Automatic annotation (TrEMBL):
Keyword Nucleotide-binding tagged: yes
Cofactor: Mg(2+)
UniProt record similarity statement: Belongs to the diacylglycerol/lipid kinase family.
The name this protein goes by in its record: Diacylglycerol kinase family protein
GO MF annotation: an example: kinase activity
Domain DAGKc: start-end pairs: 1-128
PANTHER family: SPHINGOSINE KINASE (PTHR12358), SPHINGOSINE KINASE RELATED PROTEIN (PTHR12358:SF54)
Enzyme Commission designation: 2.7.1.-
Keywords of this entry: ATP-binding, Kinase, Lipid biosynthesis, Lipid metabolism, Nucleotide-binding, Phospholipid biosynthesis, Phospholipid metabolism, Transferase
PROSITE patterns given in the database record: DAGK
Gene3D superfamilies for this protein: 2.60.200.40, Probable inorganic polyphosphate/atp-NAD kinase, domain 1 (3.40.50.10330)
Coiled-coil intervals: none
Length: 317
């Protein structure tokens, strides 16, 4: 058995990680691990395919959410398991799977001795303003609206220095803009619907950085997406949204009180589920996948690929 590490050299202490990998692979009786470095020009897909071509049995992704997304996208085509060495700001997939975030030794040991857990993968076709269409995968969320606008406004140098606090400045800038837009959308094979909205998020799982529970019913392995349609108008609606996300989702839904209080529906926030969603926009908007901005889109077609990726989790979990 042989593993490969696909790593972002900016995100990890390579010598320290190599030492842990060497020790854990020896304990598990695996052959020496292969190492593939990502670059600005090829942030994950190419190195992963090189690892696959080398005949490895497991790939360890050492980097942020973008690295993990691109490695998973490539591995889904070949059926190899993926282990996570969380090394970014968000580490959203690891958070949603309750994996260790800041313990390199535990993460590497899980890679070599854990068990595989199949999870769903999102597949999205993005229609660009020039009419071209490109395809991508995501593990956590795809979004249009304030989240994508915020990410596009995030100062990467500031993010490298202060982490997720850099998003605070970006979200203030995003809120100053006129963010409402019109769209047409269809869920599965349902009717075409029209909506004026502020944000659309198609989620494979529900927890964000800061332990914010945005999609409380989302599950990584149920073969469906949870879709959030957010349409606040004025301060009152924004207060409803904040109360729903931070109090009901963030506190009540995580305690036994959820069985007593129940769920409160609000005008500004609508949740639906689907295995596929198509939407069209009259004007181009920024789109994001797993925290990475992917430019502007005039349309999306999103579908779930059930159990398409296998993630290593601790054997005792």
């Amino acid at each position: 058995m042989r593993a490969a590490v696909v790593y972002n050299p900016v995100k990890i202490d390579l010598d320290a990680v190599r030492a842990v990998v060497d020790r854990e692979q020896a304990r598990a009786g695996w052959d020496p691990t292969l190492w593939f470095e990502t670059s600005k020009e090829d942030p994950g897909r190419g190195p992963t395919l090189e690892a696959v071509a080398a005949g490895v049995d497991l790939v360890i992704a050492a980097g942020g959410d973008g690295t993990v997304r691109l490695v998973a996208e490539a591995l889904a085509e070949h059926g190899l398991p993926l282990a996570l060495l969380p090394s970014g700001t968000g580490n959203l997939l690891a958070r949603n799977m309750d994996l260790t975030l800041d313990d390199v030794e535990h993460s590497v040991r899980t890679a070599f001795t854990g068990r595989g857990r199949p999870i769903d993968l999102g597949h999205v076709e993005i229609r660009r303003p020039d009419g071209s269409v490109d395809q991508h995968a995501f593990l956590v969320m795809a979004g249009l609206g304030i989240d994508a606008t915020m990410l596009a406004a995030t100062d990467e140098d500031l993010k490298a220095k202060v982490g997720w606090l850099a998003y605070v400045k970006a979200i203030v800038a995003a809120l100053r803009q006129t963010n409402t837009f019109r769209l047409q959308y269809r869920l599965d094979d349902g009717p075409l619907q029209r909506l004026r909205t502020h944000t659309v998020i198609v989620g494979n799982c529900g927890t964000l950085t800061g332990n914010i529970l945005l999609l409380p019913d989302a599950a990584l392995d149920d073969g469906r997406f949870d879709v959030l349609l957010m349409s606040p108008e004025g301060l009152g609606h924004w207060l409803q949204v904040l109360g729903k996300v931070f109090i009901e989702n963030g506190i009540v839904r995580r305690t036994p009180l959820r069985h007593v209080i129940g769920r409160r529906e609000i005008t500004a926030l609508n949740y639906v589920t689907a295995a596929a969603m198509s939407l069209a926009l009259p004007a181009a908007r920024q789109v994001e996948l797993d925290g990475d901005t992917l430019g502007e889109a005039t349309g999306l077609h999103v579908r779930v690929l059930p159990g398409a990726v296998t993630i290593q989790v601790p054997a005792e979990s």
